[in-house]
Specification:
By secondary structure, this protein is an alpha+beta fold. 35% of the residues lie in helices and 17% in strands. A hairpin with a 2-residue loop joins β7 (205-210) and β8.
Length: 349
């Protein structure tokens, strides 16, 4: 206890000199870090109104929106928010206590603002936190009704584009939903797309009606991103392959075999091969042979280091001890002779 009393003046002096932050200052730093995180989460290149930004901030836990100025993020200096966040920290001293503070900060939401920019400390304005109405939900394509009402044409039948258009008209969709139809080779492709802002994926729906089959689907998210071309009537008639499954390359093995005893076994899936006829996978066998050859050569060539290294090292470093000049080739040879069979077997498996 006596030692603690002796340390008390030292702690007070360090705190007074600014070397140790007070609990209030540390709690304020925590609140400022929370406000910085809010700014990062609000950062976006997508144009938004002041109400949309305010609503997004108000839904974050522990954040109160006290003031909003500006009209749109892309108009002038953008939208400025005054938010209130909280921070907690332990008080400096011999008997630390938890201190919780509420602090206000000013955030600017605009494409010109750098990501992670630190907010400004401001005085909290009077009044309760603002309340915002959620933005209206974008119109949805009635996928289930579309699937239920599209005509089913038997194999060998004829698809009537006029009948398809009558089905789309009966769905009573929101007028802002874009509708495109295209007939090609006896099949009708359909695109139904709600409005897009050019920054987020589009919730489009594709469909195709043809003899023997009617399909309705939504492309993968990555294909619905701006510029990907997934939301197009062409993609309805000629669907793009799923993500991470590239189109078949006639000069590349689709499903290569492992190195090993079965390397010459038939490989199914070489693009361009005749249906039902496998190929032998000779190119893969060559790759396996190359890997085995490299490791085998290393194991046989490593003893040559016993001859080459000492003479070269003595010429370069005359003062080097003979024992040291043999250390590296010795180690390399032992490693190569010991592990090259294992490495060769690993390359073949």
């Amino acid at each position: 206890m006596r030692r603690l009393l002796l340390l008390a003046p030292v702690l007070l002096a360090l705190t007074a000199c600014g070397l140790i932050k007070s609990g209030d200052e540390k709690a304020t730093d925590v609140a400022r870090a929370e406000a910085t995180t809010v700014g990062k989460r609000l950062y976006s290149q997508r144009p938004r109104t002041a109400d949309e930004v305010g609503y997004a901030a108000s839904t974050m836990e522990g954040v109160e929106v006290l003031r909003v100025t500006g009209t749109e993020t892309h108009d002038g200096k953008g939208v400025e928010l005054i938010i209130r966040t909280t921070g907690s920290a332990l008080e400096s001293g011999l008997d630390p206590q938890t201190i919780t503070v509420w602090r206000c900060f000013s955030l600017r939401v605009s494409p010109s603002v750098e990501w992670g920019e630190e907010p400004r400390d401001v005085d909290c304005p009077d009044g309760p936190p603002l309340r915002f109405s959620p933005p209206p939900e974008p119109p949805r394509v009635p996928t289930e009704a579309l699937m239920a009402k599209l005509p089913r044409v038997p194999k060998g039948g004829h698809v009537d584009e006029t009948a398809v258009r009558r089905v789309l008209a009966s769905l009573d969709m929101d007028p802002v939903i874009t509708t495109h139809l295209k007939t090609e080779n006896g099949r009708v492709g359909i695109l139904l797309s709600p409005p897009a802002d050019g920054y987020a994926p589009v919730d489009c729906v594709l469909a195709v009606v043809g003899p023997g089959g009617t399909n309705v689907w939504t492309p993968p998210r990555i294909q619905r991103m701006p510029g990907e071309g997934g939301c197009s009537v062409t993609n309805a008639l000629h669907p793009a392959p799923p993500p991470h499954r590239p189109r078949t390359d006639p000069n590349r093995l689709v499903d290569s075999p492992r190195c090993g005893p079965d390397v010459h076994a038939p490989v199914w899936g070489r693009a361009g091969a005749s249906p039902g006829r496998p190929h032998t996978g000779a190119g893969q066998a060559g790759q396996c042979l190359n890997a085995s050859f490299v490791f085998s050569l290393a194991s046989r060539a490593s003893p040559l280091l016993f001859v080459a290294w000492p003479s070269a090292s003595m010429r370069s470093f005359p003062a080097a001890r003979p024992r040291a000049s043999w250390a590296l080739p010795c180690a390399c040879s032992v490693f190569a002779l010991a592990f090259s069979p294992a490495l060769t077997e690993h390359a073949s498996s």
